[in-house]
Amino acid sequence: MKSSLAGPQFLERAAVPIFTNTMHQSDECRRIVARLTDFLEATLDAPAHQEVSAHLAQCTACSRTLHELRLTISLLGRLPKHKR
Ligand SMILES: [Zn+2]
Questions:
Q1: Where are the domains of the chain?
Q2: What is the DSSP string of 25-40?
C-alpha cells in the first residue's frame, strides 16, 4: 500500500463509502455509487460505463451523489500540494 494520506486519491476512495452509507438503500444504488469514482475517471469498460450512466439518468440520489463527488474531487484538485 502506498502512503495512506498522500493525496486526493485517498480522499476520493474514502468519500465513496460515506455517500453510500448516508443516501443509498438499494443494492443497485450501492453498486452504482461504488463505481462513481471510476466513472468520473473514465476507467470503466463500456458496458459498465453505460450501466452507470443509465442509472444516473433515472436516479436523483445517485446523480446528486455524482455531482457532490465531482465537486469534492475538483475542490481537492485545487488544493495546494504540500510536502510532508
Ligand atoms: Zn441510484
A1: 23-77
A2: -SHHHHHHHHHHHHHH
Ligand 1 center–CA 32 separation, angstroms: 7
Q: Report the alpha-carbon distance of residue 31 to residue 38 in Å, rounded.
A: 12
How close is the Cα of 44 to the center of ligand 1, in Å?
A: 17
Interval 15-51: pLDDT, tens: 555 555 555 568 899 899 999 999 998 999 999 999 9
Output the nine-digit C-alpha cell for 71. Answer: 465537486
The pTM of the whole model exceeds 0.70: no
Cα(23) to centroid(ligand 1), Å: 9
